[in-house]
Amino acid sequence: MFVMKIKQTILFCAITFLLAACSAKEERDDTQQGLYIMNHFSKIDTENLNGDWEFYWHELLSPDDFKRGDQPSPHLMKVPNPWSSYELDGERLPQQGYATYRLQMEFPQSEVGTAKALYIPEVSSAYKLWIDGEPKAVNGKVGKSTGLMNPQNIPRTIQFQVYDQKIELVMQVSNFYQWKAGIVDSILIGEPEVIAQYREKKLLFRSMIVMCLVVMGLYHVALFGLRRSELPLIFFGLVCLFVSIRAVRLDGILAFYTLPFLSWDWGKKLEYLGASLGILFFVLYTYTQFPKDMSWKIRNIIVATLASYGLFVILTPAIVFTNTMKLLQLLIVVILIYLIYVDMRALIKKRESSLLNAIANLLFFLAIMNDVLFYNHLIKTTELASVGLFFFLFTQSIIISRHYSKSFKHTEKLSRDLAKLNASLEQQVHERTIELRQMNRDLQTANQKLNEAHQSRSKWIRNIYHEIATPLTTIRAYTKGILDGVINSDRKFIQLVHEQSLYLSRMLNDLHDMTEIENREIAFNRKKVNVREYLRKIYDKYKIDIEKQGILFLYEESISEDDDLFVLIDKHRIEQVIVNFLKNAQKFIEHDGVIKLAVTKDESQQLVIKVKDNGAGINENEINLVFERFFRSRRHDDVENGSGLGLAIAKEIIDYHGGTIGATSKEGEGSCFYFKLPIVSTVSKTHGK
Fold this sequence. Notes:
Blueprint: H1 2-22, E1 31-32, E2 35-37, E3 47-48, E4 51-57, H2 63-68, E5 75-79, E6 87-88, E7 91-92, E8 97-106, E9 115-120, E10 123-124, E11 126-131, E12 134-139, E13 156-161, E14 166-175, E15 182-183, E16 188-190, H3 192-226, H4 231-250, H5 252-258, H6 264-289, H7 296-315, H8 318-321, H9 325-348, H10 354-375, H11 385-436, H12 441-484, H13 491-518, E17 527-530, H14 531-547, E18 552-557, E19 563-569, H15 571-587, E20 594-601, E21 606-613, H16 646-656, E22 660-666, E23 670-678, E24 681-684
Parallel strand pairs: 2-8, 18-20
Antiparallel strand pairs: 1-2, 3-16, 4-5, 4-8, 6-7, 8-14, 9-13, 9-16, 10-15, 11-12, 11-14, 17-19, 19-24, 20-21, 21-23, 22-23
């Protein structure tokens, strides 16, 4: 039965990869003898300008040269292909050099007078393009030597007008900076709208991948910050971050938009570092999962090799380290084969999560093999590393969720044991108190206080247990259902488990803050602050996010424009209080509601900062309880309502500042949360500061 499940899972994933590979558009060589004849121009799809192009080695020719007939005899070469694969006079061309490509395109008579567009991917390493004699695009600077050229790899969309049936395309290309040289990817032609959609879809797809990787990476790094003993978290997070760096560099447009300050050389370095260091931390992550099945000596050799390669990339120019791409590809393939061997050993020994790891690594290996062959122009499929990586990340999220589910179950058991221990301690304290009551009145008082402290602690623990138990039950139920096959592993169930875990994370952060505040372990950095400038910055900071929800966010000052008021506060902690008020208002307000941030002075010349809303309001029986720990309104008692500690933390912060905090509300009309702070000085603008 176990073997059958493995076969079924592998078969399903293999079919998924096969469908992804088959979805790639077939690339045909439609260009013959330097002429591309378009008999039937597609209005809904793009066409590849693949095939025989005229090629002039060590010549930088312009359209005027072809008009005068000054050009030498052309060589017909296959495009796309790096020119280092071309042979002239029985010898292969070097990687470094310059050349001119020329293609003539013949359109049907019906297309004359229409607009068309080209999509030009990365051309290594700089080019200049003319269409029908007009200069249309420049990428970098073309030159005949290293000092005369500047490399740049940004995919471009170029629109042109078809004035005649025959259109001439001339492209000068030079490369002195990397191992790829010339036109190495297919140039596409199509309607302007179709080309624009193609570019946007490609950019959107790559952006989604990068965003997901960055979010997952930062999330796991942050988790490691809270749980330093969990090394898999930091290694998994670093894998995501380094792979995201390489994913950005794989699309020149995305890299241009997100990292415009990077030079071409450092962009290439990040691309190679993303691959090598991503695999390095992937190896370390696998070792933390199966330390008994991976040789620590081999692990150290792999880590040392990849770290040395990363240092080599940093210290050498692109023309040197890019020539090691095939060596890096071979190294990665060998490492992945070894990791699959480790997973198989773990699977045979029935280690926890070994099945999912084996399947994920196997498919990721197949995707990498596909990409190695694809980028070396040995097969014509499509890029599959992204699909393999996402499948890998999905399996790891299941593994991590299951691990934390077990951890929470263990925590739940410890909570029950602690509750029993507390009950036993309370009974002992009670018996000792009865025995000693008549002997010493002072000791009786002390024992009574100790008993009250235990009662308070028991209440605190029960509240924590109650808050943790509900999301834990949900997480355990859904993950168990998914593992048993009762529930399909749809995104909505994974999303639900993820939201419950986020809620637990938020509550634990609040508990951490509350404990530190109570124990005075937080250092408040209080400074003299101009109230007007401070509040306006906060208003501007959160205005866009609040109004994205369809809520009108207003700011109101009821203090004299001629006076600047100063208070002594920790800016970060007071902002935390205001943001807590704003988030509470957002939760209980309708789509077209209004939130107002206001500042004024009261009769005792104290500063009053208010957050008003016209939302659901709070019942008058509950208004005096909102600042108590774990209090949540019965009308909105759900996970999105928070842990019930935010306002309690806000009260502790305001108390530390020597201020007061409060709230007023009328059910159905809205609420007003406010706090007061002492004003330390007032400066009149009319007399100067």
